[in-house]
Amino acid sequence: MSKPVPLSRLDAKEFISPANSACQGCAGSMVARIVAKIIGKEMVRQEVACCGPAFGNIQQPVFYGEIFEGAGAMMTGFARAFKRADREDIRVVGIIGDGGTSDIGFQGLSAAAERNEDMLWICYDNEAYMNTGGQRSSATSKYASTTTTPVGELSRGKAEKKKPLPLIVALHDVPYTATASVAFPEDFIGKLAYAKPIRGFRFIQVSAPCPTGWRFDPRYSARIAKDMVESGLWPLYEVYDGTLKISYKPKELKPVKDVLHGQGRFRHLTDDEVDEVQGYVFRQWERLVEKDGAPLL
Amino acid sequence: MMEIRFHGRGGQGAVTGTRILATALYYEGKFTQGIPMYGTERRGAPVVSFLRVGEERINERDLVHEPDMVIVLDPLLGKSVPVTEGLKKGGMVLINHPRGGRDTGLGGDFNVSSVDATNIALEEIGRPITNTAILGAFAKVTGSVSLESLERAINEQWKGRIAEMNINAVRKAYEQTNAPVDVSDLPPQKVETKPGELNVSSWRVYTPVLDKDKCIGCMRCYILCPEVAISMVDKKAVINYKHCKGCGVCTEECPVDAIDFVQETI
Amino acid sequence: MAKKFEVMVGNKAVAYAAKLARVKFVSAYPITPQTTIVQYLSDMCATGEMDAEYVTMEGELSCQASAITASTTVRSFTATSGPGLLYMHHPLHMTSWARLPLVMAVVHRSTKGMQPDQMDTMSQRDTGWLMLECQNSQELLDTGIMSFKIAEDPRVMLPTIFMGDGYILSYTSEPVEIPDQELVDEFLGPYRRPYPMFPEEAAESLKLMGAMWSNQHGPQHIWKMQQEAAMNAKIVIKEVNTEFQKKFGRSYGNGLVEEYKCENVDAVLVGMGTIASTAKTAIDRLQKEGKKVGLVAIKSFKPFPDEEFQRIAGYTKAMGVIDRNVSTGTKGGITFTEIRHALYDLDERPVTLNFHAGMRGQEVTVDGLKRMAEKTLKAARGEKVAPIVEWVGGN
Fold first, then answer.
1. Could you say which of A29, A183, C26, C381 would form a disulfide bridge with B226 (CB–CB 3.0 to 4.6 Å)?
2. How far is C81 from chain A (nearest CA, A)?
3. Which CATH superfamily is domain A7-291 in?
4. Does residue B152 belong to any structural domain of this protein?
């Protein structure tokens, strides 16, 4: 399994040029920078239509495929072609948003996982189609207010729970699946380092709070990411060799109430709704703890 | 027909402000065409929108290249965005600025009128969103829209307290707008950014300032900076201001509070 | 060297083209009537007869998307029909504006049902792909090989479809000569990677990607460049056709059109694919009766051979254009529209008539074609004929 890497051990070399056109405080930018840094020189980056291209100015070859639904297929093409060209030293990495992973890209994701293609799929999860102004995706949390699930007399935000994507991918029996958070960079880096040399399909979903879409001051991006983990809203775990291992166990889960009310997209939640969310966070956490160290299936 | 160009920041309501003004003008019997420049939704980035105002339906659909008036919603924009480019000779700049008049850094064959919209917005709305306050200034300076029409348009956009606060901002700005002054003898605006260049330092309203002595070299600000604007030199963090957007993440994350967040001087 | 022949179905001829071209990446998905192409390729890869990455993708869109990225680095191929082609419509546009020399076989299948017509490729005619039609299985194999040379020519660099009618060609057997691998290797040469995608080429790669997205020459520029490449393709297609003749002893008209028995005619039928092939028999019979009518088979639909039609107009008084397609809302079939457009600026224009025939696999017989030719001859004599656009009934 992966081990957290102390920041002091990091190489100073960066693979993303400084300053980009993303929003202030963009956690997706943080994700892209860390991924590029850890995977390093031998990386080809796949992008689709999402916020990703804004985390640009990189120093690795990038293929910006406007085919939003095509991340899985496009990365497959690269992985196979590099194999044929005797360049298996090149790691194919996709930095794809939740829409391009969980919704329109889901077919390609599942298919590439089923074929165990040699690629590293990094899903930076800002829980909506943020590049187009913040429409709901299947990765959006329940009750979140988005531009297509607004709050009104007849609507309380998104009516459905967040799609359990990491577990779905893990059940494809791929070499490595993990969740990560920008607020826990040592853990995220450790997981990237672990995933890098593995041949086959690897998937890491990173919680990437979005100041613009989740509606909070940009300075709190990492703070909110931390709260998501501490409260159990976004548990950190990995699945390797079919075994699930929790990466970080808070002594006590932080109440979700403060985490939710700190974000404009949840400001409308009633106490009952907060309790409901608290309820299923506890249940989800309990199930994970039960499975900690055990085979997933 | 009058052509206006707005300069604002993403997430600061420039598009909404343009629409409110267009609505108010419609109540006064004018036809309008509000053109936002849609890019990706980037909070903090300089954005531009256009407004055409005429007596009948406007047919031209190209962009406004030579505005009669330029409205600048954020005083810092003048440093990095060529806000007076294309402005017709004898035209007007209406700028949100604490000092205003001949002290805005703008100079050329046009007049400058100013209002401290940020301050008014903070007083009346509690947030530095200047898109409505500036409309009060517009009404005062041009006389081409009445406060009543602006209020009516605001009441359509928002309800209750929010509408009330914005109307107060409009009225206050109307009172406090400085009369236009001639700046033809002043040197032209010094723009720090080349055309097409991305200059994120112009996005800053607040700037992080690091106290090196307090820094313990934990590298958290370094690894979390979305712009890769922080590097480590001799185990201490160093901020490269050219690349800093002023998001504040480093300020928030520093475990020893070594980074202050200071308002940019205008 | 002894020539190798095999009695094979059209789909196998297509598979041979991909194999002989030494493609290194095949993305596969089944759809009638193309399915056996990818099955033949699968067999060839499984036995080692062919040395390529063979990936069964989860749908045609993914077939195209994966072939796009694969073709940045290795010679690639995919195949589809009808709805499969429609399903990949979105990435088709990208292959062309990214200027990737991808080659794809399309076995015609209507957009309704499984029988052949040109609705599949015609509905994709704006995607920037070159489109080369085939009349028989030999032509499928030969055109497949030629397509790689045309697409990969530096003056072109446009993705290319080579196509033939489903069932009529795909599942019908005929003797086909399999060109010698060595000769094909000489003819095509090695693949030149169009995109620098290796990490040591990062600077070049980023520059290229930057140029693809930049508006430096104005937003329209990439379409202008694409159009210029398509126009260049007219020259390249003819050159490749001539070279193919030299190398393999076969060619197809001048590469853009084939004029069959058009010496000293008053009228011509114009058709594509198997309709053109059947029309040759109709022409033979009519000429035996002394009727002065020939056949023009369009091989290159994109780029459209306007100059060829302007030239042909110089010796014929009437053209009877057969369309195995329709663009609802526009009166007349698509090649009919293209031909009229090509002829418009001429001082003297032949009469042009149109026949909708063969859609959804409706049989097009020799007798049916003879009737169309007779009507066209009538027009050539200056007699009034109506309607100008005719929907040909069953037989």
1. A29
2. 19
3. Thiamin diphosphate (ThDP)-binding fold, Pyr/PP domains (3.40.50.970)
4. yes
- Tell me what pLDDT residue B39 has: 60
Give chain A's contact residues with C (Cβ, < 8 Å).
41-44, 46, 58-67, 69-70, 72-78, 80-85, 87, 90, 107-108, 110-111, 114-115
Distance from CA of C79 to the nearest CA of A (A): 15
- This model of the complex carries an ipTM of 0.95
Domain interval for residue B18: 2-182
CATH number, residue B20: 3.40.920.10
Low-confidence ranges of chain B (pLDDT < 70): 38-41, 195-196
B102 and B33 within one domain: yes
CATH architecture of C257-391: 3-Layer(aba) Sandwich (3.40)
Q: From CA A37, how far away is CA B69, in angstroms rounded?
A: 47
Minimal Cβ distance to A76: which of C55, C74, C205: C55
pLDDT at position C395 over 50: no
DSSP single-letter state for residue C49 = S
Q: Is residue B194 part of a domain?
A: no
Q: Where in chain C is the domain with CATH 3.40.50.970?
A: 4-195+224-248
CATH number at residue B246: 3.30.70.20
Band (pLDDT 50/70/90 cuts) for residue C144 is very high
Helix A27-39 × helix A221-230 angle, to 10° = 80
Cβ atoms of C338 and C284 closer than 8 Å = no
Residue of A nearest to B207 (CA): A219
CATH 3.40.50.920 boundaries in chain C: 257-391
**What pLDDT, in 10s, does the model give residues A245-260?**
999 999 999 999 999 9
Q: Which of A7, A14, A24, A126 to mutate to test the interface with B (most CBs of B within 10 A)?
A: A24
Q: Give per-residue pLDDT as tens, C39-78.
A: 999 999 999 999 999 999 999 999 999 999 999 999 999 9
Pick the residue of B9, B12, B15, B40 with the most A CBs within 10 A to test the interface with A by mutation.
B40
Q: How many helices (H) and strands (E) does chain C have?
A: 14, 15
Number of residues that this document lists for chain B? 266
pTM value is 0.93
Residues belonging to chain C with any Cβ–Cβ distance to chain A shorter than 8 Å: 24-25, 27, 52-53, 55-59, 61-74, 76, 90-91, 94, 195-199, 201-202, 205-206, 209, 213
Which candidate from B40, B41, B226 shows the least CB-CB separation from A30? Answer: B226
DSSP letters for C346-394: -SS--EEEEEE--GGG----HHHHHHHHHHHHHHHTT---S-SEEE---
Spatial distance between the Cα atoms of A17 and A125, rounded to a whole number of angstroms: 22
Q: pLDDT tens across A258-295, in order?
A: 999 999 999 999 999 999 999 999 999 999 999 999 99
More confident residue, B127 or C29: C29
Residue B201, pLDDT score: 85
Is the CB of residue A25 less than 8 Å away from at least one CB of chain B?
Answer: yes
Q: Domain coordinates of chain A in residue numbers?
A: 7-291
Cα separations in angstroms, C118 against B63, C51, C323, C330:
42, 32, 8, 16
3-state DSSP assignment of residue C5: strand
B206 burial level (CB within 10 Å; 0-12, 13-18, 19+)? middle
Class of domain C4-195+224-248: alpha beta
Domain stops at, among B136, B152, B182: B182
Largest CA distance in chain C: 70
Number of domains in chain B: 2
CB contact under 8 A, A59 and C91: no
Residue of chain A whose Cα is closest to the Cα of B225: A30
Kindly list the residues from chain A whose CB atom is less than 8 angstroms away from the CB atom of residue B231.
Answer: 12
A56 confidence band (pLDDT: 50, 70, 90): low
| Segment 53-92 of chain B within 8 Å of chain A by CB | none
